[in-house]
Amino acid sequence: MSGLLITGTSSDAGKSLVVTGLCRALARRGLSVAPYKAQNMSNHSMVCHDGSEIGRAQYLQAQAAGVEATSAMNPVLLKPGSDRRAHVVVRGRPAGELMAGEYATGRAHLSQAAFAAYEELATEHDLVVCEGAGSPAEINLRAGDYVNLGLAQRFSLPTVLVGDIDRGGVLAALYGTWALVSDEDRPLLAAYVINKFRGDASVLEPGLAEITRRTGMPSLGVLPWLQEVWLDSEDSLSMGAWGDAEDGVPADRRLAVAVVRLPRTSNGTDVDALAAEPGVDVRVTVDADAVREADLVVLPGSRATTSDLAWLRRTGLADVVLERAARGAPVLGICGGYQMLLDEIVDDGVEGGVLRCDEGATKGGETTSAARVPGLGLLPGRVVFHEDKVLARPSGSWRGHGVEGYEIHHGVVAPSGGEDFPGGHAVGAVRGSIWHGTLECDAYRRALLDDVAATTGARWSAAPGATPFAARREGMIDILADALETHVDVDAVIAIAKEGR
Questions:
Q1: What is the DSSP letter of 423?
Q2: Is 436 an active-site residue?
Q3: Positions of E strands within 13-139
Q4: Residue 280 — pLDDT band, cuts 50, 70, 90?
Q5: Catalytic residue among 48, 335, 357, 441
Q6: pTM: predicted TM-score of the whole model, two decimal places
Q7: Tens digits of per-residue pLDDT, 185-201?
Q8: Residue 62 contacts residue 322 (beta carbons within 8 Å)
Q9: Are 395 and 423 in contact (CB under 8 A)?
């Protein structure tokens, strides 16, 4: 075997989760498996132990496969900084920018890096499970494609389509994808899987049989809606899609957390651990009343700090955050959100006086070009943006609890007062940290929430015996693998990979 491509009829169809589940299911069978995504367009990323940056989904898939995550698993990462500009990461390191007009024609050097990374993984593992991006039916992009059928053609990869039935029209999407791709590419489409089905799958059988008759693609199975699966999404469409699972904590003992949905939210997965905590209700919102009334407000990471700060002011949410701080209500800023809480944001001349934001830079009038921008002034200090990008895996402690995280930023924060806080500093109930991922540390997260509850008078307390977050993530991977084993013909998947095209 060499490789297999899992692609979808749309974004958020379930490609990442199918690849994650397959990696675990195949690893259970004793295969050496590696995940791979040639190009990921996402602001949710992770720092590997070797200091390289890759998409969050591929980091999770490596965990599922039981292998160390490396930059070869996501050789090209595009991080949108505006609607027309993306910041490029190649083999885990910054590599310039890509304009919208260059997307179809200016990526030849990126494809070379992607193909070389695939070849590297293919020599080291029995099977490379590749994830596509968007849809292979984006025929306007086919000429320069190296992540969907362009990748499949290069390495003769059989391709499995994933269709999202929850959106409706899945049969049309499957047939339309097959019909739109070129005659040369069509033989690569080996089979399909239906995802997110609720109800009796037998009602689908006539439709699936007709799709197979018309296209020649067999159905490999129908995956049910998996309520327990919501962690580590790479897609902004899924941010905050945690469902309404009952955890048994009564209403008068719950804690409300409002996460501000910034236009350019980055690493929104930081709040997954809060949502997993029993008795904690997390709402991703732009509603002023929700932000005002929550026990804790989180300003998450931002791909465009100054632009999102300007948006915060335009919407009036900045005033709500300031009012909260004035009455001692808890506020937590993470990375870009932390920078917004400072006195001042300073450009040191990088890129001609255009502010370089937390996890990148913005241009084109979407962010102020002044050399200095006032922050919200809730934490004393300033952030200065530099050309070099910080990628690190730091650790520390808070009130006797170990804290680990990861750093992805250009800005260097210089506090001028306040108390120490992991990765940042604090003044009263306003806290900021440049570190992502710290809330996954169970004892630290619960101590922080205990402090929030004591400050606001909430009756929340940590549930005895609550599942550790790392164990919950492992459990989610196993749920995915079990679902694939139960509802998808994994033996047929392996046979397809062995047969190739």
A1: T
A2: yes
A3: 33-36, 39-41, 45-47, 53-55, 76-82, 85-90, 93-99, 127-131
A4: very high
A5: 335
A6: 0.88
A7: 999 999 999 999 998 88
A8: no
A9: no
